[in-house]
Amino acid sequence: MTAPRTGIVLGGSWSGMLAAHVLARHLESVTVVERDTLPGGPEHRRGTPQARHGHILWSGGARIVDELLPGMSERLLAAGARRINFHQDLVTLTSHGWQHRFPPRQYGLMCTRPLLDWTVRREILAGGRITVRDRTEALELCGGSGRVTGVRVRGIDSGARELLEADLVVDAAGRGSRLRHWLADLGLPAVEEDVVDVGMAYASRMYRAPEGATAAFPAVNIAADHRTGEPGRFGAVYPQENGQWIVTLSCTRGGPLPTREEDYLPFARSLRDPLVAELLARAEPLTPISASRLGINRRLYPERLEQWPDGLVVLGDALAVFNPIYGHGMSSAARAAAALDEHLAQPFGPGAARRTQRAIGERVDDPWIMAASKDIAFVNCRNRAGDPRLTGGATARQHFSDLVAERSIRSPAVCDVVTDVMSMTAPQSELGTPGFMALVGKDPMRPELTGPPLSPQELALVDLESRGAVGAR
Ligand SMILES: Cc1cc2nc3c(=O)[nH]c(=O)nc-3n(C[C@H](O)[C@H](O)[C@H](O)COP(=O)(O)OP(=O)(O)OC[C@H]3O[C@@H](n4cnc5c(N)ncnc54)[C@H](O)[C@@H]3O)c2cc1C
């Protein structure tokens, strides 16, 4: 085969739509196979339960989306998304203390996942070059160990089975992907897998925010301190479209996930600072509490197989999932879609799928190591990873990471580099350069903050003047 002409994408969510868009730039025909009905508006659906929890699209991912779909961020903002500039628009209690609100460096987009998914999907499908086969389930890959030639599908309503042939199949079926079984069925050896499972669980709820607070009040984040030896407890209040807040409370394994109404506010009060609880008490709940226990880090290494079939690529959560607390899943998938785009722009003959897969593997490495190396510091974390960075020398790395975290909240120059990395704008290796080491050692630190850095105007917006101005130690 020379250049692929036909493509099939398994899964029509975030990764699947970006992958389909990329395929449509290079291939003659593209079909998305999706088990659910894709809604005609910003609505929830069964296949994406994580959409009921707070999401941020970091600037590193947003810029890629804007390159693939020019003007997308503007459209999201026009639809009600909020641009959160870091650290101006975020009030956060990190593991090491309150973060100073340094001048903006990077940003993140915040809105509900249904709005984000629908806005992106509508734009991608408006091109008219992509066929969606919804209410259709992918059952298995067809072909052999050397080449995938298509996928066998089943209509959810009719039960009818069908073979869809394609030159290139992209698995974007999320964390439920059956790729490992499908590859075994094709006669390939087992794909290596690393798992770091801190048992993160989430309980989220939508609220009507006090008047004006979604536009002019910062996002709020209260993190756990991994050094206490206790299960971690977290809380976040993110502004969303339509004057709403999404509140996400979460805990690591052994923590009491507040899934019942009567436990929600008490859990928020039990965080290291009561700010989230104080905000909840001033907002009107709009939905029931949605719970999820999807906070695991899991990574497949298809690039390590000696043989990888032509005509197959895997990306998004089907390839790697990260503890959502770091907010890297969608940006990582956007990086993978960009890698796919770059490789399809070159001659895509035998071996090209393998090269593409390797490039995608490189692009998920930063979010993987960022999340997994932080999570192993928590009590009750189950580390079943062979990645040497997560075993030997992990304690020394944790000490360095703690030192950086401590500096980053009070030193603007250190914070800039950390924010570039966290937003997936700069590589993780920036944190290991001699220049950065020197910065950590000598950059002057601002005084330690003794409470949330909120202005009198912000406190007035949420009727919290009694908290008063925050001093510095
Ligand atoms: C609680 C939580 C909070 C998160 N917060 C953030 C955040 O703040 N920022 C961020 O960037 N990321 C976040 N994430 C991660 C983010 O949600 C995922 O990385 C992202 O949705 C991955 O998209 P995907 O398309 O790969 O997979 P999914 O969104 O899971 O989509 C998979 C799709 O495949 C379909 N499908 C599955 N199997 C089949 C089949 N056999 N046949 C046909 N279709 C199939 C499903 O119906 C679904 O539509 C969070 C995740 C969770 C769980």
TrEMBL record:
<feature type="domain" description="FAD-binding">
    <location>
        <begin position="8"/>
        <end position="348"/>
    </location>
</feature>
<dbReference type="InterPro" id="IPR036188">
    <property type="entry name" value="FAD/NAD-bd_sf"/>
</dbReference>
<dbReference type="InterPro" id="IPR002938">
    <property type="entry name" value="FAD-bd"/>
</dbReference>
<dbReference type="Pfam" id="PF01494">
    <property type="entry name" value="FAD_binding_3"/>
</dbReference>
<dbReference type="GO" id="GO:0071949">
    <property type="term" value="F:FAD binding"/>
</dbReference>
<protein>
    <submittedName>
        <fullName>FAD-dependent oxidoreductase</fullName>
    </submittedName>
</protein>
